[in-house]
Amino acid sequence: MTTSDELTTAAERPPQAGLGSFVVGFDATEGSRVALQWAGELAARTGSSLRVVSCWGLRDVWAEAHRGQAQGEVPSEAELAEVAHRRLVAAVREVLGGQADGVECLAVHSGEAAAVLTEQSASAGLLFVGSHGRRGLGAAVLGSVSGRLVREAACPVVVVPHRVIEVREPAQQDQPAQPA
């Protein structure tokens, strides 16, 4: 139990610039693309920074990294990481367009998505992830990254439902709402 001396109200706290840093878990699925778009729009409106985090494994980047190498030559860890980072940057530019400037892209090798995003949440104001729409046995067997993040993240988690696929054009974002 706390005493009234330890409590502060929102009005008593110093103002913050924006909502801090937003982190988006990105796995190139439609759900993560929609979550990235939502986070990008909110970051632009609030002045918050945006960090997009993607976990990758060897099979995700091996073929592309191996192209152009001599027979029997193995890509280095740095070459594999570069391919993963380049792919992430390209995907972020595709989703956010002109809003991608200044977005931090972090491609993490061999990390379990929930653990990596939980760690990233320690320095975030909000954590965004997309929902794959799995229910019941599918979610139980495959595990639920979003469910685990809701329980373990150090900041609020926004799970964008997989049904939210409406992708607005940038020109529509700046137009004021029409009166009814």
From TrEMBL:
SUPFAM superfamilies reported for this sequence: Adenine nucleotide alpha hydrolases-like
- Show the InterPro entries listed in the entry: Rossmann-like_a/b/a_fold (IPR014729), Universal_stress_UspA (IPR006015), UspA (IPR006016)
Pfam families to which the protein is assigned, alphabetical: Usp
Q: Which domain of life is it from?
A: Bacteria
Q: Where is the UspA domain?
A: 22-161
UniProt record similarity statement: Belongs to the universal stress protein A family.
Protein name listed in UniProt: UspA domain-containing protein
Q: Which organism is it from?
A: uncultured Quadrisphaera sp
